[in-house]
Amino acid sequence: MSDTNAHPARKAALGFIFVTALMDVLSLGLMIPVLPSLVKEMAGGHTDAAAQWTAAFGMVWGTMQFFCSPILGMMSDRFGRRPVILISIFGLGIDYIFMALAPTLWWLFVGRIIHGVTAASFSAAGAYIADVTPEKGRAKAFGLIGAAWSVGFIAGPALGGLLGKIDLHLPFWVAAAMALLNWLYGLLVLPESLPPEKRIKRFDWSKANPVGSLKLLGSHPDLPRLGVVSFLMQLAHNAYPSVFVLYTGYRYGWDTAQIGLLMMLSGVLGVIVQALLIGPIVDRLKERGAVIVGLVCFVVSFAVFAFAPNGWIFASGLFVSAFAALIQPGLMGMMTKRVGPSEQGQLQGANSAIMGLTAIIGPALYGLSLAFAVRHEQTLHLPGLPLVIAGLLALGGLLVILSTRRARPLAVAEPGLDPAR
Known about the structure:
GO terms for molecular function: transmembrane transporter activity. The chain is mainly alpha-helical. The chain has helices spanning 3-31, 35-42, 47-79, 81-100, 105-118, 122-132, 138-166, 170-189, 205-208, 210-215, 223-237, 239-252, 256-307, 311-321, 327-336, 344-375, 377-380, 385-402.
């Protein structure tokens, strides 16, 4: 295919992955305001029991991500990206129906297990981006996917809250419809991005488990350091969903409306950085420079959040933390250049496994540290302790990336493949 025809094909394929990410995150966002209420209702109205079940839901979801992301990533290396993405989206839609019909907490718990498995398709989606995007444009492409996440988490909870007022089960039905419509759209228009000659010859279970998948990070120059940066960054970021609401309510007395507005502001700022600024910044500073800037802003913003004496100063930190959106696209741009086409799925699986691991560790780390800080407020005087911990983790990531070489890696993936081939 000529370059003239290939470029629109790449744009169309990337557009579908953007829509897929947006629809998936919208459906995830729909659950945020209603799932705890539904759990509480099923737990007989007891807040303590609901909190325990909600924590269990979060941990099992992260566990499924940790174990299943490498499997789906390697499956996409063996059988192609298209079938893995489409089967996962279809499974996600069926799972939302399963949870909408859930009569008990255990039924809902099983639904969360299935959800953790099907949502692991992000590893195949990330590999698809690496397939269809030239090396120079990968950070920008991953930034657009990050923007889809931000938009989804702005609109999803708002829509879920409105639908939940009508019926707590209604958001699940809407999420199911979104996922199944997205599956149908992909079934009709999504081309394969990885041709047969670029695929691995056999599925290797020794590499498809989390430990085996993570071994990939030690098999190429600089990947171990970049994997450490990814882990520290994602674990630091986990402070937001873990303690943001509880911390701001305790420290500044914010109600749900104020917290909602701040979350919306954070999402809007993230979209601006991811959709409009990542490309120019990466063009000027390259991926490594963008990651360094993002981590510096991450460290500074956590310091503001932890020590801000009032809510206005805390809110000002959001304008700094928005530039942390540079980190993940820059990292993905650096990492995808260091492996070949047949390893992109395994790489994305390893990254998703890291995300799942931090989703298991983060809630306990930050929840327990906040509880400790509140219990010892009279002597410690540091309710922002969990945010201090997150800032130190981000600082560790900054020190590691500064030790990563600038030189071009030895193993370089081929530039964007034509998905229409």
